[in-house]
Amino acid sequence: MGRRPRFLFSLLLVTLLGCQDSQTTDTSNSNPSTLAQAKSRGVIRVGYANEAPYAYQDPKQGRLTGEAPEIARHLFHKMGIEKIEGVLTEFGALIPGLKAKRFDVIAAGMYITPQRCNEVAFSNPTYGIGEGLIVKKKNPKNLHSYEDIARTDTARLGIVAGTIELRYARALGIPENRLRIFPDPLGALAGVQTGRIDAFAATRLTIQNLIHRANDSDIERAKPFKDPVIHGKKVMGYGAFALRKEDRELRDALNKGLAEFLGTPTHLELVKPFGFTQNDLPGDVTTGELCAANQKFDPKLN
Asked: Are residues 139 and 222 in contact, defined by beta-carbon separation less than 8 angstroms?
């Protein structure tokens, strides 16, 4: 009889602790993943930087379009998410915006780099592409590469803030006092047109698209152009979707969709209006390889 109250007390304590554990587990399970929330709402938010042909707002269509948003729209539709909602952001603020949960995915054709891999998770790449320059008509300073700009003491190069081109320029010895940083490609294009800079460096398709849209006979694409060679290797840029590191489920779903979609006739037809062809497919290159790449660029730039 003397032991019974102690036994009841122990049983009551175990029961209470069990309930507490159960409540704790239920609470953690009540926080749905980003993918689950998007499926429930039928909408997912994507950050973009208004850079054609990768991601931009088309006033004629009245919607977000470009290589990355159109692929995203197709993949998310397959997942049961009917709408993508664009959040316009300066390129250099895309990663901070993603981490601050202003949007769920960066769909801006962002290059995969080891430094960015420290900040975010990337899907596997959707394309691989080279570089280009916009210069004044007849290319008065004879600039056909980053190396040419480095060798020409009076040549000033325009770069969009936060882009890989700044890393290329620094790695190839272009001094800081001859670099001009712009918030967006249109600002850099205007820099060439007004003579503030002698060249603007960007991806081949960005250059091609800007020249087409500007319809300005006083500027041209530098031809021929030599892609950067850094540490003995020709540099290629591989663009992908970027996500928060904890969103593994979303990343895996995107990678599964990309594996089934990239290179199909539907994919190639979808990206054709933006200048992408089968030659721009990423091939067998993976995000893991790109994140692990030993590229000794200036550590001051992410």
From this structure: yes
How do the pLDDT tens digits run along the chain, 302 residues long? 344 444 444 444 444 444 444 343 343 456 899 999 999 999 999 999 999 999 999 998 899 999 999 999 999 999 999 999 999 999 999 999 999 999 999 999 999 999 999 999 999 999 999 999 999 999 999 999 999 999 999 999 999 999 999 999 999 999 999 999 999 999 999 999 999 999 999 999 999 999 999 999 999 999 999 999 988 888 889 999 999 999 999 999 999 999 999 999 999 999 999 999 999 999 999 999 999 975 444 433 33
* Fold entry, domain 131-234: D-Maltodextrin-Binding Protein; domain 2 (3.40.190)
User: What is the reported pTM?
Assistant: 0.78
CA gap 281, 33 in Å, rounded: 30
CATH 3.40.190.10 fits 34-128+237-292, yes or no: yes
Q: Domain segments of the chain: what residues?
A: 34-128+237-292, 131-234
Coil, helix or strand for 158? strand
Q: Are strands 105-111 and 43-48 parallel, antiparallel or unpaired?
A: parallel
Compute the Cα dihedral for 282, 287, 288, 289 and give only its sign. Answer: positive
